[in-house]
Amino acid sequence: MTQGKHLFMQSLIARNVRYIFGNPGTTETPLLDCLADYPQIEYILTLHEGVAVGMADAYALAAGQPAVLNLHVAPGLGNGLGMLYNAFTGRSPVIITAGEPDTRLRLRDPLLSHDLVAMSAPFTKWSVRAERADELPLILHRAFKIAQDPPSGPVFIALPVNVMEEQADARPFPPARPFTGARPDPDALQEAASILLRARRPVIVCGAGVSRAHAQAELVSLAERLSAPVWNTLLTSAVNFPMHHPLFRGELTDNQAHIRHCLGEPDVVLLVGGHFFSEVFYTPTPSWPAEAAVIQIEAAPEALARNVPVTVGLVADPRESLQELDTLVAAGATAEFQAASAARREEYVNLRLQERQEWKRSLREGWDLRPMTIARLMTELGPALPPNVVVVSEVNTGRRDLIRAIPFERPGDYYGSRGGGIGQGLPGALGCRLAHPDRPLLALSSDGSALYSIQALWTAAHYHLPITFVILNNRAYQIVKQNLDRYRDFFGVSGSGYPHLDLTEPDIDYVQLAQGFGVPARRVEDPTEIGPAVRAAFETEEPYLLDVLVSAGP
């Protein structure tokens, strides 16, 4: 006979779980009480449930495996729901657990109780309560399976105290090794290849499904054969395509009219591994001409043709699909096709050079401004970074400058936000650091975003996680200011000023905040000090925060 809490822990051990991220309470005491029996698993304590969810989300993304999360009853789960939305939207395989009061108190309205299964259901693939200890092995087995099955995503398990203490004649399920990468349909591949071989203005739009499928090399090969420009969807969370490649065009925006402007009237659109499209502002203009052929490749049918009609849709492993499609295009490439492809490549190489020159000209114009521009910060930052660095970024108004200044070429070099809810940067850096323990890590966060999860600094200090944090301090919710201008423009609304969007009176001292959580810190106002300050921070091999004063813009 084995207690439920041991069946739970043994099920995690069987799946090589290394960490439990959490913020526990009284209903989690069975789990806390038995942790010492399982030194293979380390409990990572956070000071707020949102931080724990953000860490688990980023760890799952960076490690490519499920993360386990432990929250505390209804208020704890409620505190984590904002970050859980990001994990759900970002398809992160996170196993969320929360303790519940003894089920024998169910009708007495025990303290902090609520329907946890119902609370978590909107943001999970599966939500369940363990009713008996002997259910735990199957529940854990199913939770890991569902979390990883395409499309991957979070699951939730409620763990009542008495179930965790109950004895059961059961054993953990052995880990499964399901191979779920479906082969692409040969006829669909042939039709897609024929469409691409006839294309005159092909374009590729990709999402995080490319990185999840480890299909970056295959996407590069096909894009180069077609000389097709490659765009990321909004809020790119990983390196799907080398960001300094001449065919890389950047990240699409949040309305169809501008998406169409970016794509440039294509005759063929290849969509791979993403949600198409995430919109904020409505425009009636379609994203491409009605006569354009659309090919979409997804690992699961849910995303296929969800918001846009497709000419050819493939539900299959993206990596294998891209590889086989590339082979078919190569076999059918005529001299005319190759000449047209070479002409397109020259066009995009020249376009990248022109854009680079324009960015450098803009950079020079703002070079001596104080406070410094974000472009100047990123330019000073790049040469100071150590080799093999990982960058975790939640910089909403500076992503373009970041990508232009720092080359992110390989999978694992860069991780960004998912879902759109803010506060991901600081806890995400912690999760990524645990997933990449042998690589230096830089965390970039806007000041407004950092305040949602500033408690993450304590966890970094407590576990001695060597992360260099850079806060871009413009003393404002700058992205909302920009979107207020856009709103006025879209709806023809007259207005001026930016009410309630400045983080001033009083100014926030991030140096004192960091030091209060045990993280050494300093403020940087002179851009020439960025390089020396960043190098010194990395040399400490401990968490260190730089509060960098940047231009507030409008």
Topology:
Blueprint: E1 2-3, H1 4-14, E2 19-22, H2 29-34, E3 42-45, H3 49-63, E4 67-72, H4 73-89, E5 94-100, H5 116-120, E6 126-129, H6 136-148, E7 155-160, H7 161-165, E8 167-168, H8 186-198, E9 202-206, H9 209-212, H10 216-226, E10 230-232, E11 248-251, H11 256-263, E12 268-272, E13 293-298, E14 312-315, H12 318-332, H13 335-365, H14 374-381, E15 390-394, H15 399-405, E16 414-415, H16 425-435, E17 441-446, H17 447-450, H18 456-462, E18 467-473, H19 478-491, H20 510-516, E19 521-524, H21 530-539, E20 544-549
Parallel strand pairs: 2-3, 2-4, 4-5, 5-7, 6-7, 9-10, 9-12, 10-11, 12-13, 13-14, 15-16, 15-17, 17-18, 18-20, 19-20
Antiparallel strand pairs: 1-8
Structure commentary:
By secondary structure, the chain is α/β, with parallel strands linked by helices. The chain has three domains: 2-168, 3-Layer(aba) Sandwich (Rossmann fold), CATH 3.40.50.970; 186-352, Rossmann fold; 366-549, 3-Layer(aba) Sandwich (Rossmann fold), CATH 3.40.50.970. Helices cover 40% and strands 17% of the residues. It has 21 helices and 20 strands. Strands 3-2-4-5-7-6 form a six-stranded parallel sheet, with helices on both faces. α4 links the parallel β4 (67-72) and β5. α3 crosses α16. The protein is globular, with a radius of gyration of 25 Å. 48% of the residues are buried.
